[in-house]
């Protein structure tokens, strides 16, 4: 059975087990009102018709070109014969279709080959492809992030040489940060770069966990590599960023001989198996400095923050498709009888009628539809640039990355449970969705790193202005939310007071001892806000879809939001058990 079989047409008004077009239409047009973006000069050439055309295109490509090989790319993962990497041919074909469709370049400026599609619409399109085949989609997502970074910080020559071929689909791109000895501790990066005297550098070192790091799906691969120059300061302040292509590339984009980049081996993953994950060796490789020396990590954060939102989006997409598969299965699978029915000869009923199955489905609905709203809301902030929106996005980014990675993965866990024993077999796709989704809590900064980022930086930066702005926006929604508003308002006050208490003496050891609990509490509060806002958009409308929105909002506020009470209780105690723990006590 293929990873998404059976599939149905993904067009508007027709059911799909990949994504819900009805939900996307509601979120984009009824809730976020994205048509209003066309009044902005950047998007003036667009309309509801062009947005719908891109959404239809993404759905069609997802269903026809990505979903059919989702299972095969998982079972027949890339192999390395010592000379070259072998990837099933459907991957390259899908990437070619995606690039030729214009989706790869759609969000970029017209002068760079794009059509200036709003980020929020593009994100919705990309999530459809992610839901269909997260592993194949990863190559394009990394390429888009790589190109975006170079457009922001590279030279015109670097744009001409590397970015344009990437947006044409001729090249793919990666980000090379981690090293075997360093992992997420980038201050320990050892890769070095030495000036060659001709304006280029020679890069030597090893990089680990490089998604898309080697393959022959495109003409070459553009690596963005963090390295240290001679005499650079210790720590992250001494890192510079370099373009290091797999092959030498002429000024006109023509591909030449191999550069000094070789594949040392492939990592064998639990999920995302169709995406090559490489250990790369750089041996006197030609590199081109991006921007200025010593600013590499700041430049790389341009791609990392974009990638973090992309990771959150991927987690939502995988959770969403898992939920849709579980819902479809629960409506068709006949088993058992209603609790009040004592007749053993009565015919079995669909399992969706059983209370615990309904519990799992409603919980999953609240996670995936809440997570989808969060990702699209964050994307729309990029389309309406302002100091406030930039500040708000800074605060939200760790939540956008981490919350779906935890809770939309739980939706996939529920999907396995709804399927029962069948869900634990490879004959049904939900076990793959779970395995694929498990990665999202790890890459582009683990959940623990996101917790440190939120509580250690984002919540207190600019005197707490970002957190204050977030809470003000949540309160504004909650005040007009009827009986669901008061608990959200109360937890806004609690999160604000807890943050102040944690930082009362400015001691990071105490403040950050339970930062992951803080991240989870803040994340649930943010999703409660998303649900209040969705419920408001659905409040005066009738039909099963809108009843489902109002029900999910009520469920999340009454059943899920209370989870953060004990988390805030723990944080208020300024408990240091985890900081004080001696590793020897663990056995």
Question: What does this protein structure show overall?
Answer:
This protein is α+β, with helices and mostly antiparallel strands and 587 residues long. Among the domains are: 21-157, Butyryl-Coa Dehydrogenase, subunit A, domain 1 (Orthogonal Bundle), CATH 1.10.540.10; 172-293, Butyryl-CoA Dehydrogenase, subunit A, domain 2 (Beta Barrel); 446-577, no CATH class. Helices cover 52% and strands 12% of the residues. Mean pLDDT is 95; it is low at 4-14.
CATH superfamily annotation of the domain at 21-157 = Acyl-CoA dehydrogenase/oxidase, N-terminal domain
- Secondary structural class: alpha+beta
N/C terminus separation: 44 Å
Might you state the CATH topology name of the domain at 21-157? Butyryl-Coa Dehydrogenase, subunit A, domain 1
Sketch the major β-sheet.
5 strands, mixed, barrel
- Ranges with pLDDT <50 over ≥5 residues? 4-14
Order of helices and strands: HHHEEHHHHEEEEEEEEEHHHHHHHHHHHH
Determine the number of helices (DSSP H or I, runs of at least 4 residues): 19
Tell me roughly what share of residues is in helical segments: 40-55%
Lateral strand order in the biggest sheet: 4-5-11-7-6
What is the second-level CATH architecture of the domain at 21-157? Orthogonal Bundle
CATH class of the domain at 21-157: Mainly Alpha
Shape: globular
Over the alpha carbons, how many angstroms does the gyration radius reach? Answer: 24 Å
Mean pLDDT value: 95
Count of strand segments? 11
Strand proportion: 5-15%
